[in-house]
Amino acid sequence: MTPTDPVRTGLLTRDDEHDLTRMLEPDGTRRADAELDPWIADLDVSRLTELYTDLAVVRALDAQGVALQRQGEVGLWPPLTGQEAAQVGSARALRADDYVFASYREMGVAWARGVAPVGLVIEWRGAAASGWVPAEHNLAVPQIIIGAQSLHATGWAMGAAWDGADSAAIAYFGDGATSEGDVNEALVFAASFQAPVVFFCQNNHWAISEPVTLQSRQPLARRADGFGMPGIRVDGNDLLAVMAVTRRALDRARRGDGPTFIEAVTYRMGPHTTADDPTRYRAADEIESWRERDPLARLLAHLGALGADIEAVERDAKVVADAATTEMREACRAIPQPEPMSVFDHIYAEPNSHLERQRDRYARYLAMFDDGAGAQGEEAAR
Amino acid sequence: MTTMTLGKALNSGLRRALAADDRVVLMGEDIGDLGGVFRITDGLKAEFGANRVVDTPLSEAGIIGTAVGLAYRGFRPVVEIQFDGFIYPGFDQIVAQVAKLHFRTRGTVKMPITIRVPFGGGIGAAEHHSESPEAYFAHTAGLRVVVCSNPQDAFVMIQQAIASDDPVLFFEPKRRYHMKGEVDEQASLADQKPMGLATVAMPGDDVTLVTYGALVQTARDAATAAAEEGVSIEVIDLRSLAPMDVRTIEQSVRRTGRLVVTHEAGEQGGVGAELVARVAESCFEYLEAAPVRVTGHDIPYPPAKLEQHHVPDLDRILDGVDRALGRPNSLSGVEA
Description:
The complex is a heterodimer. Chain A is an alpha/beta fold. Chain A has helices spanning 6-9, 45-70, 84-91, 107-112, 117-125, 134-137, 148-163, 181-193, 223-227, 239-254, 284-291, 295-305, 310-334, 353-367, 373-381; strands at residues 99-101, 169-174, 197-203, 206-207, 210-211, 231-235, 260-265. Chain B is built from 11 helices and 14 strands. A 7-stranded mixed β-sheet of chain B has the order 3-2-4-5-7-6-12, with helices on both faces. Chain B has a 5-stranded mixed β-sheet with strand order 9-11-10-13-14, with helices on both faces. A two-stranded antiparallel ribbon of chain B has the order 1-8. Chain B: Keywords: Oxidoreductase, Thiamine pyrophosphate.
């Protein structure tokens, strides 16, 4: 990477693309970092154990989501395994009053924002258009249009600044999204207005079947320089480093110093979604090489080095994870068939004569059946 | 009552909205110091400041997408799309985000975004500056689409659009920005006709002529000309394309038995097609003749020297009226 004068540009970028910002080696060894160490000085064994539990829960929920899809309980699931540290590390850096705008793959972020397990599956089951109330978690509904949420985060952040608040927004998106106009336009707006927003790009190396090299011929973090904001490339499988750089970026935003672009270098271990077959486009040894950088094993090894009883940590985390996955499975299967007439709800905030006419007509149609809406509901469920 | 242009009436309505609610913010290209390329936002930045009247980067998706985020935060953004043909880069944010987020969040997130679009031709502009894209948005659930046609409506409807908790595509007939009319600036907003309802612009008995935007004045001129020949045309200003106030049109058609719809946009899949279908469904037995559409051709908007052959004018509208009346017309004796 070309050295850039950090004083002139405010860049936080580390200068060697082969040397990501990293605080934990793959074997769990802690790497001292004078600049970043203060940002995670509060993470004692107890707190790290909680964070490890988060990772384990998120991985288990992800596995459960895949299983529920295979068993026909949900229509689709976009696995996140491999990206747990990127999601949990960044989301746990946020304050409650910060606002999150994420994509469909950030179930780990949603978990960290307090969304109940049923909220993670109801949309994939096709029983609701979203799984939670945004204001309850300061978490926008997940975005399927690639990169669209980066603009929403930027607008929210502009508003926060105009309100004189010190809250920040964070936008999650993948490497593929960096090719979209919306992400580039969000970077322009954020830089122009010095909006308190953090762009958190999870470079998981694959946009369905397309490698990151098809999106960019250079490390994505370097693009930030062109937009006039700091860009930092962090090891996305290193929870400590992710949390440190995200906290620092949020602090920068709160101080009114503007946006930051974080590229968390990670890897999607599974398919893009359960509808995808990654063996058609990537080699098994590539996946194996990333298994050696597993974010859970790395944090666990670090806990061991700190003197924690890692067998107990793992065992306790599994208890929490098992409870969460059981809750998700049972809640998923208990989701009722939505009422037929609810398709007309909440389209408009105010009355709409055209839709009211359609609603009345369909209600009359349903009423022709002896068992009314029930027969229609069962039909739809089949 | 004050006499002012349609453009000035919009400016006055925007000023009222900014003063009434400090969560209203205006965003767009060149709307600050310049006051917009049509001067609709003239003086507002000086009055309300750069955080209320915001000059943005040149990015339609950026303007509308950030407005979504602002709405998440409780603002009421009013965005200006500089010209009709520039709205397409923001189309995804409008139809996939703005239109759907109230539904997706089960009503817990409101998108009270007003998207102002100067639209239509007749000003001899360059390409992409004379388009009528309204039907794209009228087809999208979750959006309201309204069009003002005179200064009083412009003043009132822009305030109603901003006050609405729904997203509103607000089309402004740019060729009528300089048209003058009486505006009651002191009138209470609560006493005004809702923006979702059509109005009878001129009463008449023989033919119902429905239109919106710039063509309302052309239709009035046509009705005045027809009256000299003893034909009484009722001109209806549709005002709201989505939802469409069919009841007002039905009441008229049941009386006149004849319907002509005119708009600048192309015929296929246009607002006129929807209107004719709705009237055919509900007033079939009242119709004395097949409904008639007088529209722009299904062509890209032509170069300025040819636009008079595309935009319906008084004579083309009267030809359509003649068709509805079974009088000699351009299609007489011609296979359809």
